[in-house]
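Reopening this ticket.

The earlier resolution said the output was attached, but the attachment link was broken on my side. Pasting everything inline this time so it's all in one place.
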Amino acid sequence: MSNFYPSVSIIIPVYNGSNYMREAIDSAVNQTYKNIEVIIINDGSNDGGKTRDIALSYGSKIRYFEKKNGGVSTALNLGIKKMTGEYFCWLSHDDLFSPNRIEEDIKFFDRKKIEISYSSLSSINEKGKVIEEKNITLDIVAKPHDALKLGGVHMCSMTIHKSCFDKAGLFNESNYTMQDVEMTLLLSKYYTFHFNPKSKTFVRLHPERGSHTMKSIQNEEQKKICHFLKTNFTVYDFFKLEDDVDNKILSKCYQTLAGICTNFSSYEIADDFFKNAYLLCNKKLSITYISYMLGSKRVSSFPVRNIISVIKKCKKFRKFRI
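Inline output:
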């Protein structure tokens, strides 16, 4: 039998969470793996003490902290500073861990000798009934581009060695809705994530979830993610490319980045990435760029005559409508 028995901190940030938090806490304190601490961070709830009362009813089974309301990132950062465990898990107050989630992850870490894992995912409704099994399309996240393919990797599905935050830093406290995407991109810059199909996280879908109530903020923060990409990653970081990579491959990578920014409605940064692709391909514009230009009805900084020339040379140009 393995002697690998590290401590794990499960951090539950909560704001006005009386509807679902008892189920979340139960799923944490009742884990089959016992070397855990459960930390509740009350992010300034204004529900007349309901959140506080539920948390404190668990007594010594949990550690409880209150703070002024500042958003999920601030609560997670406080939890990281307070945790004593060797491994970090984030559990949203409305989500659940399977009873053996932590045990299976620790076995996985012992076997694989890794720093970060992510579990399988199921969507549940307000009553906790499974309504969808998520299809995890990648077994390994080896680069930031892989993380983005999975939507940033759901952070409540991850178990992370605490030392990883020494390189990646803490959560961005100015990011209210996409802090998980930002963090997983940073972590995947330095570490490889491994999928553990034997552990499970249940994500609850309900009207009060932040992705619904903060939709307008999320739309703006999607654009900020593109600025974050441009500021914190080179194309070599994002795709883990060799220094001597062929220019055609490099150009396609820039086009992919531009496409991501277009999807997030960050057109100025998309233009910058397309310019890099344009310069690397002997000043020939690609189908991707033409489609982007015509589909978004944008006026580019590229000379119009160049665009027209490329369209004329393109056999598929008839598919586009100006």
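Reporter confirms the inline version is readable. The radius of gyration is 22 Å. Residues 5 and 35 are 7 Å apart (CA to CA).
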